[in-house]
Amino acid sequence: MVMAFVVEARTERDMMSIGEKVAELLQAGDFVGLSGRLAAGKTTLTKGIANGLAVVEPVTSPSYVLFNLYRGKITLIHGDFYRLDDQDGVGETGWDDRAFWGPAVTVIEWSDRHPGLLPGERLDIDIRVCGGQRRMLTVRPLGRGWLTRERRLRELLDEYTLHSGD
Ligand SMILES: Nc1ncnc2c1ncn2[C@@H]1O[C@H](COP(=O)(O)OP(=O)(O)OP(=O)(O)O)[C@@H](O)[C@H]1O
Ligand SMILES: [Mg+2]
């Protein structure tokens, strides 16, 4: 089993950098689930991921549209489950049409609101606000596909990783 680990973003800039580093490992077909309270930094982290995927169009919050699609090295689908009240209503949102959009990285904010819609194979990142700009991110790679990438992921995020004694 792959273990979760904790990284720290001391500033908004750190949050962007963490996203950029995560993006280095992302492949078409990957799913990233983001959780954490309002203004935790989920969209900011997604902006970092988008930068890392060489998306040039500015990334905005998908709260009202449920999904945005961006062209990059890999297509980025950026979604938000916050306003999705009913999992059964997801068919109307375009969720089931994702396959037609082609190979993409999918990043979903508030993914924990609808666990039943998430693939078992995914990268979960839970963001906790620690006061000021400090954020603690619990990074949890899930599924066999991450077994081979976990070590590299930890290396990429090493400078942000909390080691015992920090
Ligand atoms: N370390 C940090 N990382 C990210 N954002 C930070 C940080 N410190 C302060 N902020 C501020 O917190 C806010 C985070 O907003 P953001 O839209 O990224 O949050 P969110 O989790 O997507 O919120 P929502 O639940 O409304 O979608 C921004 O105003 C940003 O400037
Ligand atoms: Mg957001």
Structure description:
This protein has 166 residues and is an alpha/beta fold. It has a single domain, classed as P-loop containing nucleotide triphosphate hydrolases (Rossmann fold). 19% of the residues lie in helices and 25% in strands. It contains three helices and seven strands; from the N terminus they run βαβαβββββα. The protein has a seven-stranded mixed beta sheet with strand order 1-7-6-2-5-4-3. A hairpin with a 4-residue loop joins strand 3 (67-70) and strand 4. Helix 1 (12-25) packs across helix 2 (42-52). It starts with a strand and ends in a 10-residue tail after the last helix. The chain binds adenosine-5'-triphosphate and magnesium ion (MG). Residues 9, 11-12, 15, 36, 38-44, 61, 109, 133, 135 line the site of adenosine-5'-triphosphate (ATP).
The biggest beta sheet is recorded as: 7 strands, mixed
Q: Kindly report the average pLDDT value.
A: 90
User: How many extended strands?
Assistant: 7
Percent of residues in beta strands: 25-35%
Quick summary:
With 166 residues, this protein is an alpha/beta fold. Helix content is 19%, strand content 25%. The two termini are 25 Å apart.
For this entry, give a set of tags.
single chain; 166 residues; alpha/beta; Rossmann fold; seven-stranded mixed β-sheet; 3 helices; globular; binds adenosine-5'-triphosphate; binds magnesium ion
How are the secondary structure elements laid out?
Elements lengths: L4 E5 L2 H14 L5 E5 L6 H11 L14 E4 L4 E6 L23 E6 L12 E8 L5 E8 L7 H7 L10
Parallel strand pairs: 2-5, 2-6, 4-5
Antiparallel strand pairs: 1-7, 3-4, 6-7
Helix pairs in contact: 1-2
Adenosine-5'-triphosphate binds next to α1 and α2.
